[in-house]
């Protein structure tokens, strides 16, 4: 039986804690929790007991090393604020633990290089939880491409839509500060860029990006004629009729995780999406060239009326398209089992000469069409064969964020950024070349 410690007990941690406490209680055991906020750790322990797992010891973030030294977990699960991932990943590996980390692995090139070098130095295993790879529709695209259905892929057009529930949520919480999250090109698009790397079995070569804050933020709202503003939702009269307001007091999980915990650290989970202090973009366009010469055009817009994606692969044998509409959710809002659940998915193959063909997909139960259950089985159960190579290590985690990191640099300097301009990029591309 493997033992686990978890650092960062916010909304993202629940999927892992519940899996350990219920489905995988025969193969996994949690030994400790770590967070900067005792109220959140206490809430996590109450949930563990509700799920039939005994409460575990709790440690403040400053005592992370002491927790590792005392409990000697086999694996540390990192679900903390993105900008802190590197410190916990690196120290856990230096202290002899393997690591499972939420995506993004980290938020900038310097932190990425430090993680990659620590993996090399310690020989520890680092898994990045790209659950999108395991969603049946995404796996089906990988299978079709591997089987040569599309032939050589010359270009990919990828449009991701975040709606006014899920998309707006990034502008209420800590993600709104780019110093915490790296912006949506790193935090959210890392999923998408990883999928492209996964589908194409290639890595990016250079990135050109443009983006701006066009919809959220106070100035944009003022330009649209809004006159009533509030800094946060709780107890704000102007928030009562605002469809963008998040009423934490009306949702048990949000209240327990954040509203009841504010007295400890002052973190406000329900900031107005039309307040000042937002430093991330909500409108993004990216072009990427891959080492196999494929071109990607990508867009992300965080204020759309529906949630999902449109993607097309243009190849030597025809065109493969997918349109996916997902149910959206608010992180920590109590809808975790519905996260990424499907409303509609259409995959269509258009052969160069022939009639279009609808591609059938078999789905499982739970989030992302059953994909969440599959990755949890790999993390906490007994992993089986991986013919599609869905397991993501530190190399995959690094290559996915480098697209977003270079996108941020491209916006900053208004020019294309080559991956090998970065020390970590040169290191990773050298490894990629050796393995080809």
Automatic annotation (TrEMBL):
Residues 142-416 form the Gfo/Idh/MocA-like oxidoreductase C-terminal domain. SUPFAM superfamilies: Glyceraldehyde-3-phosphate dehydrogenase-like, C-terminal domain, NAD(P)-binding Rossmann-fold domains. It comes from the Bacteria. Keywords: Oxidoreductase. Residues 3-129 form the Gfo/Idh/MocA-like oxidoreductase N-terminal domain. Its EC number is 1.-.-.-. The keyword Cell wall biogenesis/degradation does not apply. This is Oxidoreductase, NAD-binding. It comes from Yersinia frederiksenii.
């Amino acid at each position: 039986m493997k033992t686990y410690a978890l650092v960062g007990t916010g909304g993202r941690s629940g999927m892992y804690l519940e899996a350990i406490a219920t489905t995988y209680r025969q193969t996994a055991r949690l030994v400790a929790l770590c967070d900067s906020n005792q109220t959140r750790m206490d809430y996590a322990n109450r949930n563990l007991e509700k799920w039939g797992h005994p409460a575990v010891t709790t440690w403040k973030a400053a005592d992370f090393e002491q927790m590792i030294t005392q409990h000697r977990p086999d694996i540390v699960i990192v679900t903390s604020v993105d900008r802190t991932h590197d410190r916990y990943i690196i120290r856990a590996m230096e202290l002899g633990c393997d690591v499972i980390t939420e995506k993004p692995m980290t938020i900038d090139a310097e932190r990425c290089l430090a993680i990659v070098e620590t993996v090399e130095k310690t020989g520890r295993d680092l898994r990045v939880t790209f659950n999108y790879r395991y969603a049946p529709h995404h796996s089906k695209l990988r299978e079709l491409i591997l089987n040569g259905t599309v032939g050589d892929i010359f270009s990919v057009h990828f449009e991701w839509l975040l709606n006014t529930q899920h998309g707006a949520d990034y502008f209420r919480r800590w993600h709104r500060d780019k110093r915490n999250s790296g912006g949506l090109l790193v935090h959210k698009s890392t999923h998408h860029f990883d999928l492209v790397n996964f589908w194409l079995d290639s890595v990016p070569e250079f990135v050109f990006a443009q983006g701006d804050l066009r919809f959220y933020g106070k100035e944009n709202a003022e330009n649209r004629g809004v006159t009533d503003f509030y800094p946060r939702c709780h107890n704000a009269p102007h928030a009562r009729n605002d469809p963008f307001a998040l009423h934490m007091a009306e949702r048990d999980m949000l209240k327990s995780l954040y509203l009841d915990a504010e007295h400890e650290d002052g973190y406000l989970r329900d900031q107005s999406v039309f307040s000042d202090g937002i430093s991330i973009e909500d409108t993004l366009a990216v072009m990427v060239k891959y080492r196999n010469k494929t071109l990607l055009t990508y867009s992300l817009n965080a204020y759309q009326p529906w949630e999902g994606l449109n993607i097309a692969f243009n190849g030597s044998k025809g065109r493969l398209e997918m349109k996916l509409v997902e149910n959206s959710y608010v992180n920590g809002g109590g809808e975790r089992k519905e996260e990424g659940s499907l409303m509609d998915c259409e995959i269509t193959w258009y052969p160069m000469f022939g009639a279009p063909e609808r591609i059938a997909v078999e789905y499982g139960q739970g989030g992302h069409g059953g994909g969440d259950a599959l990755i949890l089985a790999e993390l906490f159960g007994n992993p089986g064969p991986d013919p599609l190579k869905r397991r993501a290590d530190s190399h995959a985690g690094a290559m996915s964020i480098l697209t977003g990191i270079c996108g941020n640099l491209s916006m900053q300097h208004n020019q294309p950024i080559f991956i090998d301009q970065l020390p970590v990029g040169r290191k990773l591309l050298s490894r990629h070349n050796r393995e080809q």
